[in-house]
Design brief:
The relative contact order is 0.08. The protein has one domain. It contains 7 helices and no strands. It is mainly α.
């Protein structure tokens, strides 16, 4: 059976399963929001314990990274991500997951060539492009006199 590229495209689009976009958006919104509420809870908790705003924010960030990494290690974060999709990409816990998941996956290859070498496989490009973008934006603001 011979098909043109257009015919194949139409054929595959008819056969492809439909994605429940509204359900996925809803789940990403409420689960991502719940993760943010947990972070806010810890920020308020540390503030109520007497920490100043800067120290409370630092403690809250450390707590959220720990929770994200711990849930990844226990295999729970993947289950949450299966339902929340992009909602689990909330920056701090998503970053912890992107560092912990490859480290766990490659631990059988050893501490140096496995865990340490592969730990930033996913997070590395995010760091590189995030830092590069922040430098470019900062330079643009300085050149435009907006900084």
């Amino acid at each position: 059976m011979r098909m043109t590229n257009e015919e194949y495209k139409r054929f595959s689009e008819r056969r492809a399963p439909r994605s429940p976009v509204k359900k996925n958006l809803f789940n990403a919104f409420w689960i991502g929001g719940l993760i943010c509420c947990v972070g806010q809870f810890f920020l308020e908790l540390y503030g109520a314990a007497g920490l100043d705003v800067q120290t409370a924010a630092t403690a809250e960030s450390i707590t959220m990274v720990f929770i994200g990494a711990a849930l990844t290690g226990l295999g729970v974060y993947d289950d949450i991500a299966r339902h929340a999709g992009a909602g689990t990409l909330v920056p701090i816990t998503g970053f912890a997951n992107s560092v912990a998941a490859p480290a766990l996956e490659f631990k059988t290859e050893g501490l140096i060539t496995g865990t340490a070498a592969k730990m930033f496989v996913i997070a590395g490009p995010v760091l590189v492009y995030g830092i590069t973008a922040s430098v470019v934006y900062g330079l643009a603001l300085i050149l435009l006199g907006l900084a």
